[in-house]
Each structure stands twice: as structure tokens, then as C-alpha cells.
Amino acid sequence: MSAGLFSHAVELRTIASPALWSITVAALVLLLALDLLLTRRPREESVRAAAGWSVFYLLLPVLFGFYLWADHGGGVAVEFFTGFVVEKSLSVDNLFVFMLLLAAFAVPSGLARQVLLYGIVGALVLRAIFIGLGAAALQSGTWAFLLFGGILILTAGKIVKDVMAGEQQEVDISSMRTVRLVRRFVPVTADYRGSRLVVREKGRMALTPLALAAVAILATDIVFAVDSVPAVYGVTEDPFLVFATNAFALLGLRALYFVLQGVLAKLRHLNHGLAVILAFIGVKLILHWAHGVWPGVPDIPTPLSLGVIVCVLATVTATSLLANRRERRRAPEPLEEAERHA
Fold first, then answer.
1. With contact defined as beta carbons under 8 Å apart, do 116 and 239 qualify?
2. Which residues contact 104 (CB under 8 A, 6 or more apart)?
3. How far is CA 91 from the centre of its chain?
4. Of 340, 259, 265, which is closest to residue 56 (Cα–Cα)?
5. Which pLDDT tens digit goes with each residue over 195-247?
6. Rounded to whole angstroms, how far apart are CA atoms 137 and 325?
């Protein structure tokens, strides 16, 4: 296969003017600043307030999608909605890992909001960096489609392997390289000091466990960015839409965490669905590259992608609920359990 098949540059087109970029980034900074003000004082998040914020953060992308539809056409809006659904479904998996990290670090419930916000800000910064790198890779040649597709298919394979082996997601903070590296060079206090990240102890600067938890979440953000950015580039090649879908998906994560905290563990088939979605988008990227070389190869349209992704998510949600119901039916009643052990 000639090198020209891989070196042909991709012309990235974007709907965003400098003004639209500026307005979007300014609105993002404003929302993050508002979130920071709300989380600066340690307190527990009420489910009612979290639900209200979750609805607000779900309405924002819907309104933005309608704006795109009115100003740039249905094709652009469908790309945005498809990318948002992909990123939101992946972000739910992020939430489950965040939940495990908060438990592993024994983060007080009043400080959970603050740690989650650090994780979201870190994720946004990392996604912006990876989006820029992805755009540069696509402009350098069509080989990037193969690279992105390969990453997603390999990730899907790893998820399937873990599911088939019956391995549960768990966090061992003692084995995390970033945590060990920080502990090696900077002392860490034995207890939390309110919302402070850094304190002075015995004349030396020391980190609190809250800072260590934030570092651990930032490290997991890097792993998630490697998967999520290629996934949304499989839906749209517009860097602005890629950034917007990531931003909208991440903004509501803090509030969504407290709404879904008791539900996350019950979505037992979520990883099955994510594996199917990532593999599907990986194949879509490879077919897209092949279509540019051999026009006879089919190119999967974005509306079909949206339909497949929504169907997969609906299916795994339904199967998870059915599995949970069957498990409850099989579980012995407390009285029967007591009589059996009597």
C-alpha cells in the first residue's frame, strides 16, 4: 500500500468564527466560575439541588443544538447531538471511577463537590489539548483516522476482555504511579484540613489528602481523554463541535454525580454498551478513511450513527434494569434467611 494512502492531508472545516469561539469559551469560564463559587464552602450536596443543576446542564446543549440547526443546518446539529450523546455516555463511566476514587481516599461528603470540580476542570483542559493534537494529526494525513479507529477498537476489546473475565472496576491508590510520585517528593498530611490543598506543617509545605485525590482524578482524566477525543472525531471533524460536545458533556458531571450516585453501580451492563459504541465508531473511522481511498467502500452517515448509539444505550439500560429485577426476585427474604440459619 503506497504512502500516499496515509499521507493525504485532511482539510478540517469549522462552523465557528472567532466570535463564536470567544463567546463559547467565555460562557464556559463563567459557568466554571459559578460552580467554583458554589463549591468553595464545604457542604453536602442535596439531591434536589443536584437534580435541578443536572436539568439545567442538559437544557444547555439542547438549546445550543437548536441554535446550530437554525444557523448551520440539520447536518451540523445532528453531528453535535451525536457527539454529545457519545461523550455523555462515556462521562457516566468517568463518574463511576470518580466515585471509586472518592471512596478510596475517604473524601468527606462535604468536600466531594470540590474534588469533582477539580476533576472536571482538569478534564476540560486535557480534552482541549487532545482536541488540538487530534486536529493537527488529521491535518497531517488520513493515517489519523486509522490511528483513532485502532485506539477505539483496542479500547473496546479491553473492556470486553475485562467484562468476560468478570473483573470489576476498582481503584488501588497505592499502585497509582502519580500518587506514589507525589508522595515521594512532597509530604502528605495524615488527615484532611477542610478544603485546603496545601498547608504548612513543621515548617514545611505539605499536601493534604484532598490534593492527592485531585491529582489521582487528574491522572484518570488523561486516560479518559485518550478514548473520548478520538470517539467524537469519529462523529465530526469540526474541532469546534468536538470541543463543544466535550464541554457540554463535562459541565454537568458534578451535579449528575450526586443524582446518579446510587444508580451508577446498578448500570451493570454499561461497559458492554460502551464497548459496542467504541468499536462501532472505530469501524466507522476506518471505513471513513477507506471511503476516501476507494469510493466504493461505504461511509456510515452520522444520523445512522446516532440511531445505533441511542439504541445501544437504551438496550444496556433496559437489560441492566431487568438483571437487577431478576436478582432481587432471587434474593431470599430476610425472614426466610433467618429461618434457614435458625
1. no
2. 171, 172, 173
3. 3
4. 259
5. 788 888 777 888 888 888 888 888 777 777 877 888 888 888 899 999 999 99
6. 47
Q: Is the pTM of this model over 0.90?
A: no
Do the Cβ atoms of 241 and 130 come closer than 8 Å?
Answer: no
Mean pLDDT confidence for 304-317: 90
- The x, y and z cell numbers of residue 298, run together, are 461505504
Q: Are 49 and 35 in contact (CB under 8 A)?
A: no
Cα–Cα distance between 153 and 174 in angstroms, integer?
30
pLDDT digits (tens, 9 = 90+) for 49-78: 778 888 899 999 999 999 999 999 999 999
Q: What are phi and psi of 203, to 5 degrees?
A: 80, 0
> Do 57 and 252 form a contact (C-beta atoms < 8 A)?
yes
Residue 228 cell numbers, joined: 473520548
Distance CA 170, CA 202 (A): 35
Average pLDDT of the residues in 71-94: 88
